[in-house]
Amino acid sequence: MAENSEQTVKMRRVFYIPGYDPIHPRRYRELYRKEGTEQARITGYDITLRPKKTKGNYGWNVAAHIDGVDVDAQVEVLVWSDIVRVSMSNSILATYRQLVQTAWVYIGSGALWRLMQLRKGPVIAALYPVGMLLVQLVIAILSGVVLYQALTYFGGPAWFKGIIGALGVMLAWAVLRWFKKNDGKFFAYYLMHDYAFGAATRGANTPALERRMTEFGEAIAEALISDVDEVLVVGHSSGAHLGVSILADLVRAGRVPADGPALGFLTLGQVVPMVSFLRDAHRLRADLRYLSQREELTWIDVTAPGDGCAFALCDPVAVSSVAPEGKKWPLVFSAAFTQSLSNKRWKELRWRFFRLHFQYLCAFDAPKDYDYFQITAGPHSLAERYAGRPASRSRIVTPVNKFTSTAP
Known about the structure:
By secondary structure, this protein is α/β, with parallel strands linked by helices. It has helices at 26-43, 81-88, 92-108, 111-116, 120-151, 158-181, 183-186, 188-199, 207-223, 239-252, 273-276, 282-291, 316-319, 337-340, 343-349, 353-356, 372-377, 382-386, and strands spanning 11-17, 46-51, 59-66, 69-77, 230-236, 262-268, 298-303, 331-334.
């Protein structure tokens, strides 16, 4: 850990790694602006967003006055949404083929059974697109059958029945197309593509993703030799395991200077086991093991049992069965949605599962220890902010994983 990790932070570079999300990064700027303004109002500090003037990654600047200190932060989004969009550009038939392949990978390898020993919420979320797509298929088939039966109830010549049969097939296809067009309400195709993305390669990274991760690493390495006080890498959802490998590569390469800025790594709502339990996730498991021992950074993992899409309070290193002797990271903390949101706000959000998965990036109306905006724009480094705080009790479940080899 850099020597200045316990000094007041006045300048910070923040690199945000999104999860599997096809949306333009301006969405994260607007979310930060809206929710940051609300959190500042609730908690009693000042925070203002300004346009980012430097070239490079999409981002924005933050001017904050917190705990009597003026802090400047530059937030950058490490974009891989184009890779996500390419992986989602599948036809209806291709998506159903993905369903079969993904189910086979998780069930046939035993990964699904091991995941179920951790948290039921994210497993249910993983099974949801399978069930919903099958329901849509049944509805489409029944629509076609009902049309055929209704129009041929009184019989008719074979050629007539053939025409009606074709109309039934066309109706079934139209129903499937309607469901796909309205997936913004159902999220079945979106989630299916998400889980299929990792399952297609049995947990290995695609060449395109590896190249993008190298570019991300270069941007972070440049910040680590700048005159800021802290470099903070935030990995949300699937972005958490990308951050693990990116930072592991930088540390191995000796690109985290001992006399440079403090390096913080914050993982939010991580779903690491969905990938690390897969057969060919050798790189990720090796990187988890390596990063968990390093002195060059502070790694804090924040989840919440109220987030049904994350493996809440599951240490991603330990549950992946790669924890080494002398393991230091991550320190696991709970965002405690049920305590840091008022009863009224919790009731509003409780069944909005996808919205809750983004709550880590939003304002809390009954805030406790966790505050995303103070972490990214406040005067304390990640190490200092969590120093001395008792970590949450991690879920102690370490299922035997026959694919835990860390060999590349």
